[in-house]
Each structure stands twice: as C-alpha cells, then as structure tokens.
Amino acid sequence: MGSDKALLRLNGAPLVVSAARLVESVAGEVTAVGAPERFSGLGLAVIPDDFPGAGPLGGIATALRAARAAWNLIVACDLPYLTKAWLEHLAGRARASKGDAVLPMNVRGAEPLCAVYHKRCEPIIRAAIERGIRKVTDGLAGLRVEEIEPAEWKAFDSDGLLFKNMNSPADYEEAKARLERRSPR
Q1: Structural domains in the chain?
Q2: Class of residue 64 by CB neighbours under 10 A (exposed 0-12, middle 13-18, buried 19+)
C-alpha cells in the first residue's frame, strides 16, 4: 500500500477511526489492537498486541483477552463498505447463537475479520498461536463456528462489496470514489 493502511483517510477520517466509530455504534464500546503510539491522537482506546507479528489471529486473541463482554465484534479496519445495518444483524445472530463464533461465508471461504467471537474462544485461539498457527481460520479449529451464508448477508450488500478490503492503492482509490457517491454508513 505504501503507507499505514489504518491511517489512510476516507470520508475525512482515518480508516481505523471510521471502523471504530462504526463498531462503537453497534457494540457501544470499542478497543483497537496495535501499537498505542501508532494511533496516538486519534481518540481511540488502544491495547498493545500480545502477539506482534502474528497477524490478525494475534489481534483477535488480544482483543478477546481484554474484552469485558461475552460476545465481541471483531472488524478489520480495511473493510470500508461495512454498514451499521449489517453489523447489527451480525451482532444479533451472535446473541442468539449457541456457537463460539459467528462468521459470514463467502465464495472464497470464511470472513473471520468481520465476525463475532465469544470470549471463551480466547484460550483456544491463544493456544493455536503458541503452536505456530497464523491463519485465522486454522486458529478456529475446535471452536463451534456458526456460518452465515451469502444468501443471508447479501440482503445487506446490493453491490457485492461488503467484505471487499483494501490491499492496494487502486483499491483505496476505488473506495474513495465509491464512498463519495454513497451516503454515510
């Protein structure tokens, strides 16, 4: 990407701030995981990653360790097309679930970075990291995962962009152009 993706600006705010405010509007509380100095001055509660270098799985384990809530909405900051309506639906599915995690499914597989995890997942995920596992879906082995099929989540995504993340400057430019034409989330 050429720069810190979390600090790229869309709709006048850094991605991490936009994602945090969106999650906060659904969950009521939000904490970012990462180096606190990275997000200083942004007005976010930040906790250091327990597993720097372990990727998103380490961030999930860290968030769950620090969580006070039973169910926790975990969202990557580079998903600019998420909506409040979708996240409210996802959170509602989790509250009604008997599983350990609720993950939307896509044609490419699970979407574990826009999902809800029960706090009881933390020791299993932490143990997976300690065994050297880094792929998020592999770290969920042994958990009861409730899947949300595309037929359900597509009601919240007429453009097919809900889980499209930004991995390149072209993705960033596309998101800027699309979001300028779209109403606020």
Answers
A1: 5-181 (3.90.550.10)
A2: buried
